[in-house]
Amino acid sequence: MTELRGTGGTRGKRGKYDDHPTVRMVREQQRAEPGPAAPVDEPLDADWLRRLCLDAGADDVGFVDVDHPDLAAERTYIDEVLPGIRTLIGFVLRTNRDNIRSPARGTANLEFHAASDDTNEVGRRIARALEDRGIRAANPATGFPMEMHRFPDHTWSIPHKRVAVAAGLGQMGIHRNVIHPRFGNFVVLGTVATQARVSEHGEPLDFNPCLECKLCVAACPVGAIANDGGFDFFACYTHNYREFMSGFVDWVQTVADSDSAADYRDRVTDGETVSMWQSLSFGADYKAAYCMAVCPAGEDVIGPWLDDRRRFTNEVVRPLQHKEETIYVTADSPAGDHVRRHFPHKAVKVVNGGLGPPPS
Ligand code: B12
Ligand code: SF4
Fold first, then answer.
1. Global pTM value
2. Closest approach atom of ligand 2 to CA 185
3. pLDDT tens digits, 202-251
4. How far is 40 from 133, CA to CA, in rounded Å?
5. Is any ligand 1 atom within 6 A of the Cβ of residue 188?
6. Nearest CA to ligand 1 atom 67
């Protein structure tokens, strides 16, 4: 009889749980249909696994050995997801482009939230399908929830961008988002970690779909993206993530510091208060993502830009640049100067970035 692991039984001896109905039932089943109780060590066929992932709803997929050198720096966090990971299954789901491009933030955020939910659901389906075959697998979130107890240090478990690049699903553009050769940057990235080995791994793309057109540089309201691909994390984080982690901390501090309702309403507009309510109720809203919105790269995306660049700029880039809105910056930051210089019609609001101690 196959020894059942985890029942406390010792081979040849009667164990404490031998008479439990579940233990008896499982042992009966194993006698009737002997099969692998633990994952078999044969690698999974890559074509079979690819089909499984596409059937689960992925738009593209690639496999990476967890020992890939590009993941070495992140192993402590990756290994936390599941013991004994051997393969990372990287996959992408397309997003609806015109939602992401919409200057109406509700329309763009609906797509970010819906596409992230779909991606989590696809990861869950892949993990479930593997589990049903006796293979251990887990799907960490595409974004949130994260390991917030480590905040502000490394809060994510799996660096999906690095996995996607190693899996051959795209390359990072100047704006540091992964650009898929066909779908462009209009993708959400997901990863499933599994103990299984896979017969073939992906190879990084041999070209970068980024055109170096710099539309992302021109569109970012806080100047977070440099021409050479440098990225001002704090500028992006302070504005775009105003209603996420640190922005929320800053808002709570403002509430705590206010002397009265009137004082609070001097510091925070009603629009900002209800926007925070909306983020807390329906999922935190991004303030921009304009770098992603304007990117013309990718076989399925590039057509309108190639046909008529002026028209593309007028229809896609200008509405975001011309939008009148509040831009959040920290005091004396290059981001503040950037908004005042390039987007004088946008209101600048100086806030506490929230990563350090509260302002005195
Ligand atoms: C951390 C993070 C961020 C950070 C940093 C972004 C970045 N460039 O890394 C912030 C909060 C700014 C951010 C913003 C956005 N993000 Co984000 N983010 C992540 C996250 C959790 C990890 C990214 C990562 O691996 N970074 C490390 C390496 C691989 O990237 P890197 O560019 O070399 O990172 C450097 C800097 O970011 C910096 N850094 C990172 N964190 C921190 C923290 C501090 C305190 C400091 C000082 C520096 C710093 O140091 C890194 C090493 O040099 C992933 C989800 C995940 N679990 O993977 C999503 C992810 C990368 N984000 C995504 C998206 C969509 C966005 C936004 C468009 C959000 C939005 N809707 O507005 C913007 C785009 C900003 C941009 N141009 O990059 C997508 C990208 C999809 C794609 N096609 O590539 C991901 C993959 C989520 C997903 N599952 O699809 N994000
Ligand atoms: S907008 Fe242009 S420069 Fe920026 S990432 Fe996309 S293709 Fe590259």
1. 0.92
2. 6
3. 999 999 999 999 999 999 999 999 998 899 999 999 999 999 999 999 99
4. 10
5. yes
6. 289
